[in-house]
UniProtKB/TrEMBL annotation:
Residues covered by the Rieske domain: 4-100
This protein's record includes keyword Metal-binding: yes
PROSITE patterns: RIESKE
Keywords in alphabetical order: 2Fe-2S, Dioxygenase, Iron, Iron-sulfur, Metal-binding, Oxidoreductase
Name of the protein this chain belongs to: 3-phenylpropionate/trans-cinnamate dioxygenase ferredoxin subunit
Keyword Oxidoreductase carried by entry: yes
InterPro entries tied to this protein: Rieske_2Fe-2S, Rieske_2Fe-2S_sf
Coiled-coil zones: none
Length: 111
């Protein structure tokens, strides 16, 4: 599989998650306050809720339903009730196109 166009970079609003679906895989794309673009799995591992409907604070995306916050860098939950991480996807930029391969996740350290 190769990277696919997820959206235009210019479509992203700072600290406002954008939901994209690539090959049936829901992904939350976030332009954080530092200008870095992140792509993580859009489904909360606690309650099957869309994370892109949640709240961005710093380098975290919080599920609106039960308050679990996930690291945008690692996908790991930072508080309960979620305890399983979400996948983190490799992001590429080509001009104004944001590209993501929904089958290619980042290797994130376990510790």
């Amino acid at each position: 599989m190769t990277a696919q166009r997820a959206c235009a970079v210019s479509e992203l609003e700072q600290d406002t998650p954008l939901r994209v679906v690539l090959d049936g895989v829901p992904i939350a794309v976030v332009l954080d306050s530092d200008g870095e673009i992140h792509a993580i799995g859009d489904t909360c591992t606690h309650g099957d809720i869309s994370l892109s409907e949640g709240f961005v604070e710093g380098k975290t995306l919080e599920c609106w339903a039960h308050g679990s916050a996930f690291s945008l860098d690692t996908g790991k939950p930072l508080n309960l009730p979620a305890y399983e991480p979400v996948p983190v996807y490799v992001v590429q930029i080509d001009g104004d196109d944001l590209l993501i391969d929904p089958q290619l996740t980042k290797d994130v350290p376990v510790a």
